[in-house]
Amino acid sequence: MITIVDYGMGNAGSLQNMIRKAGGESRISANREEIAKASKLILPGVGSFDNGITKLNETGILDILHIKVIQDKTPILCICLGMQMITRQSEEGKMPGLGWINAKTIRFKFTKESNLRIPHMGWNTVKIKKNTPLFYDMHQEPRFYFVHSFYVVCEDKDDIVTTTDYGLEFVSSLQRDNIFATQFHPEKSHLYGIKLIHNFIAM
Known about the structure:
Elements: E1 2-5, H1 12-21, E2 26-29, H2 32-37, E3 40-43, H3 49-59, H4 62-71, E4 76-79, H5 81-85, E5 89-90, E6 103-107, E7 120-125, E8 127-128, E9 143-148, E10 150-154, E11 160-165, E12 169-176, E13 179-182, H6 190-202
Parallel strand pairs: 1-2, 1-3, 3-4, 4-13, 5-6
Antiparallel strand pairs: 6-10, 7-9, 8-11, 11-12, 12-13
């Protein structure tokens, strides 16, 4: 059973529908016992960095999440803000991140002449840089839906799974051991999103 972590800042309902379409079962929960029993976890996220970290703290589940992810090595998929929160810090806020990945989150900075808008919003392709179960049997440059003003910079290049071009080449997904993360929203990405979620279920 996949548990979608409920801390009030994510497309939990959309994710649950996508998991169902991909042939899996899930529950949305902030219950410690249900999180402890989960075979896989999803940490979604929409909103600001400090607010997300604050909400996670307020749920009282941070310690059990650390145990599940770091000690038990339970597979977890972190999405959008969820991906940013597992870094050490973000330019968006002052609070420390979860620190599961040796990385930081920084803001897009473009000149007016670039004509590039912030946030980066809409469909874009991802370039697969290394083999990972999340992109098993996937088209070499699949398209996913993005909505974000900040992006993750990995200090360990081996963690990078895909990159995407938007004024620069940024990390659009990563993996370290049991930790998977996407800057894009698979729950909004139709067929490629279903395939990615199916691969996560099948791990």
